[in-house]
Amino acid sequence: MNDTYLPQPTGHRIAANRTYGESGGTFAEWEGIIIIVLTVLMAIFGFAANALTMLVIRSSVALKGSAFNFLLVSLCAGDILSSVNSVVVVYRKTYGLRVFNLPLAICKLSYSLTGLTETCTTHHILACCTIRLVAMKFPIVITKFTPTKAKVLSAVIWAESILSIFVIRMFMTGIEEGKGGARRCVIGYGTWIHLKRTYTTYTAPILQHIPTAAIIIFSVLIAYNLLLMRRVQGLTSSTARNQREKAALRQIAVIVLSYLIGHAMPIGYRYLAALNVDTGFTRRDRWIYWNVAYTLLRASECVNPLCYNYASSQLWTATRQYLFGLGPRTNSDSMNKNLAVTFSSTESRLRPSTRTDSVPSTITSETRA
Hints:
Helices cover 68% and strands 7% of the residues. By secondary structure, it is mainly α. It has one domain: Up-down Bundle (Rhopdopsin 7-helix transmembrane proteins), CATH 1.20.1070.
């Protein structure tokens, strides 16, 4: 979650146009402990679940040969970084409100990784939604989307996120010291404060708001097209096809819901702040809002791997085989003939689907029917 746009506690003034102070009265000691423990547990689970998904895909000849699965692996990598960074983020927003005792390098890295992972996730999901929609409308064109092109696309997304978010934040973030020993990790400190305001005014809509709106619109269009195809085909549609269409709709609903759960509150606050609707919020109100929003974001990143397996019987089978040696054993040649990877929008993301012919793996069974 990009906490640049979320409320900052008020207190002693230690720099021009910025107020800080101790966190006394913002949260009780037991509340801080609960938040940190919960974050650590979610970080461990999120790291393990996303790492497992990456290992399963990379260990399968069929799955790792899919262009869309490479994007899925890239998304998992972003969630792993977010899991590692989450503990520092929550510390910064709890006990770090009093005195930030970690080194300056960690302060800069944490703020920069927060923006980087959020931007990468959003843009990966937007790319998947776009490709999914193109695959439905132009199934022949999408066959040109090869694993090599997927790697290039993923590299471009990471590169633009690093240059537009990570690098800039590394310069803009620092530690400010104030009265009473106050020492806080902040973005836009000192001479950077005015640039930060201009920077966030333009980057938030371009890198977050517009892509998020596009994800929602494309998801609706995908669902509409699937329903329209089913209505047109009517009774001629096979039971297997109906099941595939239902699976596609389920994928879209689960992934988009997960994404919105994690990102709706931060985006909503940004607009409330822009309209000055939040001026009556107390320091504690803002602290509660931020922690609820961030907890929902962490929860959505934790359940994403579960969503991948829920929406894909092939990935679920491969996961069970990887962990327990369960499920039918199939050699890599037959898997390449019988498995294909499809994708869907989300807060997130990509899915496998069954293929029984020799059409390239980038065409889903839904789009070819």
